[in-house]
């Protein structure tokens, strides 16, 4: 191989080389498209086509039992005015309740995850005996399937036999057992608690990766100058890791906006915690109204899409790689 | 003295983090080893080792079947997404051509699709292909979240491989396919292990599609089976069985993650930070 490379270097000044190279480039580009096509077809089949069909269904009166008999009805699934009353997803107070729940859930849990993730990342960034043990422990919540964590916490939060009530009562923090997942005031808090537990590791690992890329010299300078570590954190560390932190936050936020499985399993179809995804699936599958449910799905897609566009515009993301 | 306090505080924090991360799973294991009315007394340590729940999970529902389904689906998803991922990553990472940036952007955009946003279209597709209540339908639909991610991470990895290797292979007259298989694959195995693991975990844990596109107990994957375990009434969930099933499903993933923790961490950060 070494000789081949040398050969390439030797050939470079050859006047015939550019033509030969461009032919090579052309055949490589052809091969590239050949290799890309299967992936693109598959992706178009499982992502592009279903998305377009979903958007189409949202303008029809499609029903789960008879998808092919769907008729175009315009924006009626979204909003329609009939006999002095508004109909459609946008006029449904349950939809707005779901939107509100989703937003509340997303903002609170992502904020908590960022703060906790930062703490965990700072701990993992310090070198101390047993660090790898902590990292291993932190990864466990991330590895546990969401359904399992929902069930595990559901059991821990059980109103009569749950260990959480038991702990809080023996600590004297509460006087009577709380119905974590059933009571309207606490259900969303319970969902947030589980989500924070489950996704803080992801946040911590992303922040840790950013921390480990920081230059050490400014820390040495700060130490020589005798600046308090807390001040160093806010003046040096936080500004330096801010770009990575923003990326992590947006990744988590997009993930939080589409939450389905945790809520579905922990509190089922309860109104108090219903997210946009749960609402859309309930319409689609449980009530069989594919058209109406697709309208809700499309609205969720638009919400997430808007976030992605904002992210690409303001996040200084470079897509061509280098 | 102040230093000592600092150390004590730090290790207290460390202990709190470990306890917080591990305790729920630990408690699930403790619960799964209890039987009968023992379940309803809170205990922090296992008192008796009772395996009844583990036996009854397999007896009362087709849990072995569900496990087999999950294994089959996850392995198929990993194999397919790695195959398509490697070939696409070669094109996207090694060859300069027009529209490459746009393609990468599209792939990234797909990875952010909410699954619900394609649910009705996917349902129609699965039914149109005659794959409703069929594991193959799950494998195909899972491509929507494993493929973009695999392509993305493998592309970033492929891009950083030395150029000289490929040039040498081209001079030796190797075709693009030979370059992928003979030159890159041997160097790619760390990235393949990482992305394969992440795809495996994603497929193993998936719930929404598995819930919507399967109908009968024997076609379900494990997450759906666990979510749908029910007792005589809504208020009598067999928590012992649920916890036993949860431990069975989680243990392989936790073991994998602990063995490959370095690889997984680098894969996660390559997928997100570089993205």
CATH architecture of the domain at 92-288 in chain A: Orthogonal Bundle
State the share of residues found in helices of chain B, binned by percent.
over 70%
* Strand order in the sheet with the most strands of chain A: 1-2
Beta-strand fraction estimate of chain B: under 5%
Keyphrases for this structure?
heterodimer, A: 322 residues, mainly alpha, MetI-like fold, two-stranded antiparallel sheet, disordered C terminus, B: 275 residues
If you had to describe this structure to a student in words, what would you say it looks like?
The complex is a heterodimer of chains A (322) and B (275). Chain A has 322 residues and is mostly helical. Chain A has a domain of 197 residues: MetI-like (MetI-like fold). Helices cover 69% and strands 2% of the residues of chain A. Chain A is built from twelve helices and two strands. In chain A, strands 1-2 form a two-stranded antiparallel ribbon. In chain A, strand 1 and strand 2 form a beta hairpin. Chain A is globular. Chain B has 275 residues and is mostly helical. Chain B has a single domain, classed as MetI-like (MetI-like fold), CATH 1.10.3720. Chain B contains twelve helices and no strands. Chain B is globular, with a radius of gyration of 23 Å. The model of chain B has no long low-confidence stretch (mean pLDDT 86). The chains are: A mainly alpha (322), B mainly alpha (275).
Short description:
In chain A, 69% of the residues lie in helices and 2% in strands.
Topology:
The complex is a heterodimer of chains A (322) and B (275).
Chain A: H1 2-11, H2 17-57, E1 80-82, E2 85-87, H3 93-125, H4 131-143, H5 146-156, H6 163-170, H7 187-212, H8 217-224, H9 229-257, H10 261-267, H11 276-286, H12 290-314
Antiparallel strand pairs in A: 1-2
Chain B: H1 2-32, H2 52-60, H3 63-94, H4 100-111, H5 119-128, H6 135-159, H7 163-171, H8 176-205, H9 208-213, H10 222-227, H11 239-259, H12 261-272
Helix pairs in contact in B: 1-11, 2-11, 3-6, 3-8, 4-6, 6-8, 7-8, 8-12
């Amino acid at each position: 191989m070494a000789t081949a490379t040398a050969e390439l270097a030797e050939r470079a000044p050859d006047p015939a080389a550019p033509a030969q190279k461009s032919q090579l480039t052309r055949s490589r580009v052809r091969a590239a498209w050949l290799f890309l096509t299967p992936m693109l077809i598959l992706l178009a089949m499982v992502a592009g086509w279903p998305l377009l069909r979903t958007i189409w269904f949202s303008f029809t009166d499609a029903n789960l039992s008879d998808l092919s008999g769907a008729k175009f009805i315009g924006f009626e699934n979204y909003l329609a005015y009939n006999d002095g009353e508004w109909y459609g997803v946008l006029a449904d107070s349950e939809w707005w309740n779901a939107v509100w729940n989703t937003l509340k859930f997303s903002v609170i849990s992502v904020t908590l995850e960022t703060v906790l993730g930062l703490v965990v990342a700072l701990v993992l960034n310090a070198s101390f005996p047993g660090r790898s043990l902590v990292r291993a422990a932190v990864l466990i919540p991330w590895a546990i399937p969401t359904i399992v964590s929902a069930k595990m916490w559901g059991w821990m939060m059980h109103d009569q036999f749950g260990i959480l009530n038991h702990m809080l009562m023996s600590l004297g923090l509460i006087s009577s057992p709380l119905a974590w997942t059933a009571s309207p005031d606490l259900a969303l808090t319970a969902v947030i608690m589980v989500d924070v537990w489950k996704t803080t590791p992801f946040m911590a690992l992303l922040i840790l990766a950013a921390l480990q890329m920081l230059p050490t010299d400014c820390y040495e300078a700060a130490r020589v100058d005798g600046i308090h570590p807390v001040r160093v954190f806010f003046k040096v560390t936080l500004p330096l890791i801010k770009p990575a932190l923003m990326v992590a936050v947006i990744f988590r936020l997009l993930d939080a906006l589409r939450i389905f499985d945790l809520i579905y399993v922990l509190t089922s179809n309860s109104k108090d915690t219903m997210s946009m995804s749960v609402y859309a699936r309930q319409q689609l599958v449980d009530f069989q109204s594919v058209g109406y449910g697709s309208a809700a799905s499309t609205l969720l897609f638009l919400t997430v899409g808007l976030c992605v566009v904002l992210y690409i515009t303001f996040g200084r993301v470079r897509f061509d790689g280098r | 003295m102040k230093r000592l306090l600092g150390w004590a505080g730090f290790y207290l924090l460390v202990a709190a983090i470990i306890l917080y991360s591990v305790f729920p799973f630990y408690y699930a294991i403790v619960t799964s080893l209890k039987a009968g009315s023992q379940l309803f007394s809170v205990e922090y340590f296992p008192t008796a080792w009772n395996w009844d729940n583990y036996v009854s999970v397999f007896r009362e529902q087709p849990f072995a079947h569900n496990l087999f389904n999950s294994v089959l689906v996850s392995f198929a998803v990993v194999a397919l997404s790695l195959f398509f991922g490697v070939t696409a990553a070669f094109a996207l990472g090694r060859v300069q051509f027009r529209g490459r940036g746009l393609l990468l952007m599209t792939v990234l955009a797909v990875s952010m699709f909410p699954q619900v946003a394609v649910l009705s279209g996917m349902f129609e597709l699965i039914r149109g292909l005659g794959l409703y209540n069929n594991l193959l339908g799950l494998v195909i639909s899972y491509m929507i979240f494993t493929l973009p991610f695999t392509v993305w991470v493998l592309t970033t990895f492929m891009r950083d491989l030395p150029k000289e290797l490929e040039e040498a292979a081209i001079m030796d007259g190797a075709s693009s396919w030979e370059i992928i298989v003979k030159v890159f694959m041997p160097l790619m195995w760390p990235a393949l292990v990482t992305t394969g693991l992440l795809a495996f975990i994603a497929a193993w844990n998936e719930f929404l599609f598995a819930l919507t596109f399967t109908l009968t107990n024997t076609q379900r994957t494990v997450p759906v089976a666990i979510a749908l375990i029910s007792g005589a009434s809504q208020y009598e969930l067999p928590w012992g069985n649920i916890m036993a099933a949860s431990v069975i499903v989680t243990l392989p993933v936790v073991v994998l993650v602990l063995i490959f923790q370095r690889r997984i961490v680098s894969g996660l950060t390559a997928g997100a930070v570089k993205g």
